[in-house]
Structure formats: C-alpha cells, structure tokens
Design a protein that fits this description.
Layout (H helix, E strand, L loop, with lengths): L1 H5 L5 E5 L8 H16 L3 E4 L5 H12 L4 E6 L3 H4 L7 E5 L2 H11 L2 E4 L4 H16 L5 E5 L6 H12 L5 H4 L2 E4 L2 H10 L21 H7 L1
Parallel strand pairs: 1-2, 1-5, 2-3, 3-4, 5-6, 6-7
Helix pairs in contact: 2-3
C-alpha cells in the first residue's frame, strides 16, 4: 500500500536547473531533495544532460535511486557540462531549439530549480507554450529561499499592467519545498484559455525548426 501511495501521475518530469551549484549550500540541498522526492514517487528524470552543478546533483540522485535518467544536450555543450562519466542515458542534439523540443516531448511535467539565463529561458518557453496551447503539462517552480521572488513579482506586475492575463498567471505553481511542489503539481488542473487549440500545433515540426530556417 505504501508503494502505491507514493506513485505519481507523472512518469517523467523534466527539471531545468543550473550547470553551476550557486554560492550557497541551500541550492545544492534543494536539488538533492527534489531528486529524492522524484525517486520516492518513482518518477524518471529528463534534464539538460550535464553532470556538473545542480544538474549533476539531481541526475546522480535520481539515477542512484533506481529511476531512469535521460539527459538531452547539444553537442557544443558536452565539453562544458559533462565532466568524466555521463549519468544514465544521454541523447545528443544539434542545438538548443532541438533540445527544448525533445525535452517537452519526453516529459509529462516541468520543474525549474534555481539557475541562470538558460534555466529561466527554458522555464519561460514552457510557460509560453502552455499559454499558446502547444502543451497542457504542469509547470512547477522550486523557489528555494526566495530565489525567484523577483521573477514572480515581475509576473504579477505583468498582470497588473495588462500584459499577462490573470488566468495565465496561474500556469506556474511555486513553492519553497520539493515535497509541497510535487503535491500541488499532482492536484493541478489547467484553467487558463489557450491562444490556439492543441490540435492546431504540430509539435513534430519543432525539432526540425533550424533545418526549416536554413532551407528558406
């Protein structure tokens, strides 16, 4: 019974996070905590493919916990984000566009840990795709020690100033602990209006995006 209670409706969660660990131990602790919570719920990991920084911590934790780990990384970043042996399955792609498209296709939900520009860009793209109706997957933000307070305040300001619809503000779920975040994500039901219906988007073409541009 206990094993059944810990199983999640998510089979694979994509985690966006930094290739650095940050200056404070609280960020590393959060990555380890999230990894352990995924293992507890038998959730496999999709992530950016590196084995350094927070990426390395969470991937190693999930892998050692017996869950599958899929890392998706552009060839150009392999020398920078992979040091020594790789963790789990690693899939190389040609560029960042293909990486994000593959992550979206492989995952049932998304979580962002603290990170830099790349982490925030990936998070914002998944939020945008949800708003547009490209996917209907749950998006969580692990706001460790208030790291993302200013970003969340920016979203609130966007609502106040009329650039973000109130319903779309609720696309993202934010909490300060991994356990609470996953619990809220399990219970989440999308309520915002999509810009276009899911059926009108052809996701399989996103992976060919660069080739389409080059062909024009």
């Amino acid at each position: 019974m206990e094993e059944e209670n810990t199983r999640s409706k998510f089979k694979r969660v994509c985690v966006f996070c930094g290739s650095n660990s940050g200056h404070r131990k609280v960020f590393s602790d959060a990555a380890l905590d999230l990894g352990n919570e995924l293992v507890k719920r038998k959730i496999d990991l999709v992530y950016g493919g590196g084995n350094v920084g927070l990426m390395g911590l969470i991937s190693q934790t999930v892998y050692e916990g017996g869950c599958h780990v899929l890392g998706i990384i552009p060839k150009a970043l392999m020398p920078l984000e992979i040091s020594g042996e790789t963790v789990g399955e690693v899939r190389t792609v040609s560029d960042m566009h293909e990486r994000k498209a593959a992550m979206e296709q492989e995952a049932d939900a998304f979580i962002a840990l603290p990170g830099g520009y790349g982490t925030m860009e990936e998070l914002l793209e998944m939020i945008t795709w949800s708003q547009l109706g490209i996917h209907k997957k749950t998006i969580g933000l692990l706001n460790v020690d208030g790291y993302y307070n200013n970003l969340l305040a920016l979203f609130d300001n966007g609502v106040e100033e009329g650039f973000i619809k109130p319903g779309a503000r609720h696309i993202i779920i934010s909490t300060s602990t991994a356990k609470e975040l996953l619990e809220k994500m399990e219970q989440y039901t999308p309520s915002h209006e999509h810009v276009a219906p899911l059926e009108s988007w052809q996701m399989e073409q996103l992976g060919d995006y660069p080739e389409q541009l080059n062909a024009q």
